[in-house]
Design goal:
Blueprint (H helix, E strand, L loop, with lengths): L1 H9 L7 H8 L3 H4 L6 H29 L3 H18 L1 H11 L9 H6 L5 H7 L8 H20 L2 E4 L2 E4 L4 H17 L5 H4 L4 H6 L12 H13 L6 H8 L3 H4 L6 H24 L5 H18 L1 H12 L49 H14 L13 H13 L10
Antiparallel strand pairs: 1-2
Helix pairs in contact: 1-2, 1-6, 4-5, 5-9, 5-10, 9-10, 9-19, 13-14, 13-18, 16-17, 17-19, 17-20, 18-19, 19-20
């Protein structure tokens, strides 16, 4: 199982087979069948292994948090414990992020599995209700934030190799630092005060955006690509599916796309541009940074709700690693970076020397961390319902909760707040 975590983690579980594990162990594939009858059986065993290991490591901190007299500190004890566990165990982190947090890929219930192993997260949730008005959505935002910044922590240590990717182990100093940084971000968000964001006229801001996506015309062919990606995921979306959805022959598609890679690249490039353009129009409706931030968030939500196939496609990216690059290599420009969108807004608290984002902004990819964090949380919020229940109407109350979390962190949900 350790070999499976290691081998499949290199490919981020995009392509998994028993043959890969057999090669890693230098045994024949039939030899593995003496232990696991198929790949599904191995994945189930890996899942149980993960839960056993995770629960055994965090249980001490879980009990420490429950017994803490400092109600504000309870949640941060557990957050730091989970962050350190994932910082030390990159293969298990990748497995958890991909296999367990995507309901399409597993039949396991994470809360139930942890509960039977002595880590009752629902009981923990109830124990902090005296100090925090936490809805399930807020807890989801907390753990999505933790996952996002740990993914960035490990991503900076990725390098290519002939056998796939290699993730260099972090040093002890980095492992000790990342749980503290993540706790600060979850605790205070971007660092605004309630007074700075509490008086916004959300209804007025939303009314200026609602219903305006209909003015954007879709490219029929790229719409077919979108449908294929939403239906099968970017790894399985094929030229055959696009041909079926567009009503064209497969051979005629090659008049538009060089190959499947070119098709995916064009799709993500076009939609990135459209989302950025629509969000910038929304941001331009105000000169106040706090309002600009909300308008940008609400604009993206409006765009994605109006185009659920795009939302589904982005959810695949949120759950699974995917590198979309030009088909002709490094000489072509990369797709537009959605990660630059919110950098254009003057978020004053980020100038503070105490901001937990300050250190990240000096990293090679740090300039995009805040914008990508916001985008991931928007997609997470809109995908809380089952794919078959997606609504074309923006869930305004959910977006407001998201905005409060982004700007104030969980401090914005304390019972002592307004």
């Amino acid at each position: 199982m350790e070999a499976a975590f290691r081998v499949w983690g290199r490919e981020f579980y995009n392509r998994t087979s028993l043959s890969q594990v057999a090669r890693e162990l230098n045994v024949s594939k039939p030899a593995l069948y003496r232990h696991f009858r198929n790949k599904k059986a191995l994945l189930e065993a890996m899942t149980r292994y993960f839960f056993d290991d995770f629960a055994s490591i965090v249980q001490a901190d879980y009990e420490k948090a429950l017994n803490s007299e400092d109600n504000d500190e309870r949640i941060f004890i557990l957050i730091r414990s989970i962050a350190e566990y994932y910082a030390r165990n990159v293969d298990l982190f990748i497995f958890s992020m991909i296999q367990l947090h995507d309901s399409r890929l597993t039949g396991f219930n994470m809360l139930e599995e942890l509960c039977v192993r002595g880590v009752d997260m629902e009981f923990f949730h109830r124990s902090i209700q005296k100090n925090y008005l936490f809805e399930p959505m807020v807890m989801s935002l907390v753990f999505t934030t933790l996952t996002f910044y740990l993914a960035g922590f490990h991503k900076r240590r990725i390098s290519a190799s002939p056998g796939g990717v290699v993730i260099s182990p972090p040093d002890e100093k980095a492992i000790r630092k990342i749980p503290v940084v993540i706790s600060k971000i979850i605790g205070k968000g971007l660092g605004y005060t309630y007074e700075e964001i509490g008086d916004l006229d959300y209804q007025r801001l939303e009314n200026g955006i609602a219903g305006t996506v209909g003015n954007i015309e879709d490219d029929p062919l790229l719409k077919a690509v979108t449908g294929a990606v939403a239906e099968a995921g970017p790894w399985e979306a094929s030229m055959e599916q696009v041909a079926r959805l567009s009503g064209l022959s497969k051979s005629s598609l090659y008049c538009h796309f060089k190959n499947r890679q070119d098709m995916l690249y064009r799709f993500f490039k076009t939609e990135s541009l459209r989302i950025m353009h629509f969000a910038r129009q929304g941001i331009g409706r105000s000169a106040l940074p706090q309002e600009q931030l909300y308008l940008g968030i609400y604009s993206i939500a409006e765009y994605l709700c109006s185009k659920p196939d795009i939302l589904m496609a982005l959810d695949w990216i949120r759950n699974r690693r995917l590198n979309i690059h030009p088909p002709d290599g490094i000489h072509s420009p990369p797709p537009p970076e959605l990660g630059t969108l919110f950098n254009e807004i003057d978020i004053k608290p980020l100038r503070s020397g105490e901001s937990p984002f300050r250190g990240m902004l000096t990293e090679e990819d740090g300039s995009s961390s805040i914008s990508l964090w916001i985008l991931v949380l928007i997609v997470n919020t809109l995908m809380r319902k089952n794919p078959g229940q997606l609504s074309t109407a923006v869930p305004g109350s959910d977006i407001r909760i998201l905005f409060r979390f982004l700007t104030l962190g969980i401090g914005g949900f304390k019972t002592s707040e307004k």
